[in-house]
UniProtKB/TrEMBL annotation:
Belongs to the TOP6A family. PANTHER family: ANKYRIN REPEAT AND LEM DOMAIN-CONTAINING PROTEIN 1. It catalyses: ATP-dependent breakage, passage and rejoining of double-stranded DNA. It comes from the Eukaryota. GO terms for cellular component: chromosome; cytoplasm; nucleoplasm. Keywords: DNA-binding, Isomerase, Topoisomerase. One of its GO terms (biological process) is resolution of meiotic recombination intermediates. This is GIY-YIG domain-containing protein. PROSITE patterns: TOPO_IIB. The active site is at 24 (o-(5'-phospho-dna)-tyrosine intermediate). InterPro entries: ANKLE1, Spo11/TopoVI_A_sf. One of its GO terms (molecular function) is DNA topoisomerase type II (double strand cut, ATP-hydrolyzing) activity.
Length: 298
């Protein structure tokens, strides 16, 4: 099933990969290369196609393109660089890829290698001590009614059940905070703009409408409930910084308050990366269902 999911992702996002890279992407599942090759052969046989038609390219061609020797090739794939689209050079030419903060990149690589690294814990404890045990200085009404949320593009997640951390991160297109039905308001705004035939739409709303128009819904993942407004602002800002605003549809970069204003950039990024990892675990357990346009009650 995992091999089929990998092939589906290649075709859906028009990526290319080698058999070698696909095997090392999930080596812990396949065990030996012959197991993956057997699964790939079965898929080709059932569909009546060859590997090239499934975007699984010739490994030697790819290695020649990258200038790899046979000795280097295995180490190259084992270091977690599996998909041609993620390389500076590829058979299909150069492509722009997401660039996250150093902290989030380190966490992504550690997760792929099944390594356990700790980051952002000191900042998490500092925030908790400030807002849970003390008397918080809030910029809005002093009520613990806020939460953070992520708008997620389900078209970038081939299998919800087997979603990996990098897929989850790549699918996030907006980070927000609010209370009550604030996340739903973005979807309602998109519908209203469509009905008014507005041409100049914010990128966030265009992304929502694009998903609906192509048969996908929008996942609204709510995280970090029952917090003060100021804490929600801090968590939102840290996640935006860790992700990099270039990879999001957020217009503003977010704001830090109280003790968090004294954190350096590394601390802020590591805290944001930690929050994304926590959100990923919530997503894996929640099994969130995408919302379609006709489900908004208008």
């Amino acid at each position: 099933m995992r091999a089929l999911s990998q092939i589906y992702e290649l075709l859906l996002f028009q990526k290319q990969a080698t058999r070698y890279s696909l095997f090392y992407e999930n080596k812990h599942l396949y065990g030996r290369r012959k197991n993956f090759n057997g699964a790939l052969w079965s898929i080709c046989n059932i569909l009546g196609v060859n590997c090239d038609q499934l975007n699984v390219t010739n490994m030697q061609v790819y290695e020649d393109e990258l200038g790899l020797t046979n000795r280097d090739a295995r180490k190259y794939y084992e270091n977690g660089i599996p998909v041609l689209e993620q390389q500076q050079f590829s058979i299909v030419g150069k492509r722009e890829i997401p660039k996250y903060s150093d902290a989030l990149e380190r966490l992504l690589i550690a997760e792929e290698r099944r390594e356990n690294i700790e980051m952002g814990l000191a900042e998490e404890n500092e925030i908790r001590n400030e807002f849970c045990m003390g008397l918080p200085i809030t910029r809005e009404k002093n009520e613990a009614a806020y939460f953070c949320y992520l708008l997620i593009d389900p078209s970038k997640i081939p299998s919800m059940q087997n979603c990996i951390f990098r897929e989850f991160i790549s699918a996030i297109f907006y980070v927000g905070k609010g209370k009550r039905s604030r996340p739903l308001q973005h979807l309602c705004d998109a519908t209203k703009f469509r009905q008014k035939h507005v041409e100049q739409l914010p990128e966030k709303l265009r992304r929502i409408l694009h998903l609906w128009d192509h048969g996908f819904g929008v996942i609204s993942l709510h995280i970090f409930f029952n917090i003060h407004a100021t804490e929600a602002f801090i968590r939102e800002a840290a996640m935006i910084l860790a992700m990099s605003r270039d990879n999001l549809t957020n217009v503003k970069k977010g704001e830090f308050y109280c003790f968090s204003e004294m954190w350096n950039s590394k601390q802020k990024e590591e805290f944001g990366a930690r929050l994304f990892m926590n959100a990923y675990y919530i997503f894996k357990n929640e099994r969130c269902r995408p919302l379609m346009e006709n489900e908004l009650g208008h």
